[in-house]
Amino acid sequence: MSNHRILVTTLVTMLLIVVGPSTLWGGTVTSDLSVTKTDGAASSIPGMAIVYTIVATNIGPGDATGAAAVTVTDNFPAALIGCAWTCIPSAGSSCTAAGAGNIADSADLISGGTATYTASCNIDPAATGTLVNTVTVSSTNADPNMADNTATDSNTLTPTSDLAISKTDGAASSVPGTTVTYTIVATNNGPSDSAGTVTDNFPAALSNCNWTCSASAGSTCTAAGAGNIADAVTLLSGGTATYTATCDIDPAATGTLDNTATVTSANTDPNNANNSATDSNTLDPSSDLSVSIMLDPPSPQAGDPFTFIITVDNAGPSDATNVTVDLSIPPAFTVTGTTGCVEDPNGFPTCTLGTIAAGGSAVYEVEAVTPNSGAEGSATATVDSDSSDPVTSDNEDEVPIAIGGLPVIEIPTADTFGLSLLILLLTAAGIWRIRRS
Questions:
Q1: Which domains does the chain have, with CATH numbers?
Q2: Whole-prediction pTM value?
Q3: Eight-state DSSP code of residue 66
């Protein structure tokens, strides 16, 4: 009797294992389904990829297969784009091998079986706040524990944008008194979209600055402005804002022209080394100087004083510094002094005029005396400065010198006493001649 009971018990146990209690007695199949989901991080960066691991598990005791297969659902939030996924089941279970977009998969999970999904998505570069993603599992089988049928992964979004800026005028040198045009490009290397500020405080050597800006598709900047740049921009990941700034260079500027532009982000910037750019130009002054010389009076008389009047004009574009004029005259003429030179009254043969502004002029005079005897020749004035001169043909001028008339011989004059004495002498001489005759 004892052996018979043992045999019956063994057969029932085997049937329960093979077909399950519900099949044996016509009861409800029970499957405790659960799901987990994680990306392994607490925060994410907009514009970067995110990879979720989703594991659907049938704890049992009944299989969830066929008509009672498990439905795995993950409707990715709008902040996730370009999602694609794969699935690997455990032995004896099955799921769809791969898919794109949301997950809505039917998986056969035997008791103790799993289906492991790997979902890769891109986070919208413009996303902010918290990224929340939920997955669920369900089956027509009875589930004694619904609390583990849903899993949510939450990540704090930390926008990060590598903003960079470049600046150039395309030249290594500039001429004071001319214009300079800069091209400034602010770029968002991503991965996140970013608000930011572009700043360019033009140096004192630049004036009358005007600028325009053109942004790439989806990005924004102010279309135009005057003076310094302090512009609020919105740059998509990969976006640019291109500024064109034109300024006048001070004609008196010397040395090096340095101009720096910067860009800052409202987001975390992983590389601040590329947030500023400086363009440096050597300033090469260029001044078109010309000189003219004239005589006053135009035809001096022999032995008379006269004046050389020398005029230097600067047609620019730069101020001319350390302007000097060399005057050459015939040796027969005597210079008595100069007016208008640094060396007055000894600004001959070289007169230093200092700085002549672009568009300005300087005049100086050389006083001289003609020789008593007839003489002729010419005087030549030559101008030079520390600036380069684009036109040298007008750096010298010559004027002929022609002495008019003969020297005047002065006849001595007498006072009243002398005249009276002369009359007496002449009278006495006349009386003496009469007596002799």
A1: 29-157 (2.60.40.1510), 161-283 (2.60.40.1530), 287-402 (2.60.40.1530)
A2: 0.79
A3: G
